[in-house]
Each structure stands twice: as C-alpha cells, then as structure tokens.
Amino acid sequence: MNDTREDLITQTVINRLQTTVDPRLRRISEAVVRHLHALVREVEPTQEEWRQAVDFLTRTGRMCSDTRQEFILLSDTLGISMLVDAVNHRYPLGATETTVLGPFYVEGPQSFDQGADISGGMSGVPMLVRGSVAAADGTPLAGAILDVWHADDQGFYDVQHGVDRRAGRGRLQTDAEGRFACWSVRPVSYPIPHDGPVGRMLEAQGRHPYRPAHVHFMIAAPGFETLVTHLFISGDPYLTSDAVFGVKDSIIVDLIDHPAGAAPDGRELAVPFVELAFDFRLAPVHARA
Ligand SMILES: [Fe+2]
C-alpha cells in the first residue's frame, strides 16, 4: 500500500521506516516524522515559507566553523538544550541543579592551589569565589575536581580575545573538608554571538541575545554524577529573559560586597571586592528522582 493522501501519508512514511534495524533509531525516526508532519498540519506553510525554512537551515549550517556552532545556538535559543539537560538530570532533591555547559569550556584547564588568583590579568572588580562540595546528604567531598570559568567585565571569555589566551578559568581541588576558594574578577552579562541566522531569528521574534552574568562550574568526584552548572549573580536585568533559558532560581546567588581591606581568606585588598559563595551538592552516580 502506498497511500500518500494528506490524511494517510504520515502512516505511509512510518510504515516505510519499519526496516530500520536499530530499534532506538527506528523510534527516533518515527517521532521525527510524526512531529514534523504535525507541525506542517498545524502551520500549513506556503511553498514560499517552506523555501524560507530550508534557506534558514542552509544559512545556519554555512555559519558553522571550528569556532562557531550556529546549530547549538539555535538549540539553545529555542530552549532545546535546556530540555535535553533536564531529561538527563532528574536528580534527587538536595542535589544542586544543572544548566547548560555553554560553548566556552576548554578541556584540561590549568590547575591552581587553594586561594590562587585565576583571573590571568582579566579586567574587572576582584571577586573571591569560595564554597564547598558535598554529597546530597551533606557529607563533604574531599578531592573533588572543580573547574571554573567566566567572562570578564566586558562580557568576553578569554578565548574570544584569542584562541590561545587563558584567563578567568582554572581547576581547583577541594580540601579535606570539601572546601574550595580562588580569586578572579566579577563577570558581566553578555550577548551570545548574534551576527548570524540565529541573531536574525531573535530579532524577528523581538528578543535580545543577552545572558545574565554568571560563573560556570563543572564538578567531578568519584561515585557522583559530574555536575555542570552556573551560579548567576542576583539583580542582573537579564535573569528573567536569559537568551538560552539557563536560569534556575536555586542557582541565583547574592554577591557579597566588601570594602577594601582584609578578605575572609586573609588576603589584603587595596580596592573594594565582591564574594561569590556557594555550597554545591552532588547526586550519586545514575541517581534519578
Ligand atoms: Fe557563559
């Protein structure tokens, strides 16, 4: 049977997919067909609109290079990256909430001692980052590996200033009580790259390309799910309209303002500084709420 009438073509295509050997691939293929056919039935695009859709995806692909991934931006700005993150991290209550990795993580960051300055000469207000890493039940985790990275006071990551530049990122290890601390600079909000098709899309949708100021963390410890998250700085005007939908209330943090003088870790500062403090909780491996 080869019925391609409007009301039967979806089932005809799905029937044709039954030869797919890999069961997971068959399920995904069927769902793609079902949902895309439903989209066409709902929207009833004109032939011209369909041509524009193909052109948009073509331009998105052409924008991609070794240093620019326009399809990830598309996934991010449509909330798909956060939904994929959500279905993969249904952690039990008590574990720190996750968010997207983002495009600026660099594998194998430089290791620093506790209390070191990781800013690498980045400009900005000095910021003490400190806290602890524990299991969801509060048991401190010694020796956890904590990668931290963030933008500068202009809203740029080191790699955006030059592919080999390293600043505002580093790797720390928690001490015997699960604590960590380092110095860097306070990041500000920044726009995602918006000079391509995704930028045009945001414009047409009346949306801005900004992400609220945040610091990224990736925390790994044996026996626990690796935590990929951010800490967002409270009071940022973009907290309720993050272009990539990455904000969760539980990871918004109040920065503590300090005058010049002695810092909590004993360091003497000649200028006022801020403190970002947070206690992370990791979920056990394969934990699902
Ligand atoms: Fe970021």
SSE layout and pairing:
Elements: H1 9-16, H2 23-43, H3 47-63, H4 70-77, H5 80-88, E1 126-135, E2 145-150, H6 158-161, E3 169-173, E4 179-185, E5 190-191, H7 197-204, E6 210-211, E7 214-220, E8 227-233, E9 252-253, E10 256-258, E11 261-262, E12 268-269, E13 273-282
Parallel strand pairs: 1-13, 8-9
Antiparallel strand pairs: 1-4, 2-3, 2-7, 5-6, 7-8, 10-13, 11-12
The structure holds fe (ii) ion.
Provide an overview of this structure:
The protein is built from seven helices and 13 strands. It is of the alpha+beta class and 289 residues long. The protein has two domains: 9-44; 80-282, Aromatic compound dioxygenase (Protocatechuate 3,4-Dioxygenase, subunit A, Sandwich). The strands form four sheets. The protein has a five-stranded mixed beta sheet with strand order 3-2-7-8-9, with no helix packed on it. The chain starts with 8 loop residues before the first helix and ends in a 7-residue tail after the last strand. A hairpin with a 6-residue loop joins strand 7 and strand 8. Fe (ii) ion binds next to strand 7. Residues 102, 104, 214, 216 line the site of fe (ii) ion.
